[in-house]
Amino acid sequence: xxxxxxxxxxxxxxxxxxxxxxxxxxxxxxxxxxxxxxxxxxxxxxxxxxxxxxxxxxxxxxxxxxxxxxxxxxxxxxxxxxxxxxxxxxxxxxxxxxxxxxxxxxxxxxxxxxxxxxxxxxxxxxxxxxxxxxxxxxxxx
Length: 141
Hints:
Structural class: alpha+beta
Radius of gyration: 15 Å
InterPro entries: CENP-V/GFA, Mss4-like_sf
Distance between the termini: 46 Å
Pfam families: GFA (PF04828)
Domain CENP-V/GFA: 1-126
Family: Belongs to the Gfa family.
CATH architecture: Alpha-Beta Complex
Protein name: Mss4-like protein
CATH class: Alpha Beta
Shape: globular
CATH superfamily: glutathione-dependent formaldehyde- activating enzyme (gfa)
């Protein structure tokens, strides 16, 4: 049987150079693929039982919930909640966790904390891109 290829519902791809992503990834930056949260949330009981979660404040007064694998400790995805507790409609999945991810077109964010050079012509921002480009997703500091 031949595999069917379905369109990738990815909204955006970010290479975040903030110090939080540097620590979390153990590297120069963290890569996050932004997807609609529908279909993943609410988490199934089985998946929820396999994950740990910690929360931290965001730059804009909300909360970021960060899920990780309890077995290996790898950070898997995060979701931002507005200051009033409303969850955003997107989820940020760590790039290395997405099989077959198209790595092209990623935007480099939080370049003010960058520790490596990036190619000329790459889209870059000192902090966050304009809100409409972020699709309401907010990476770490």
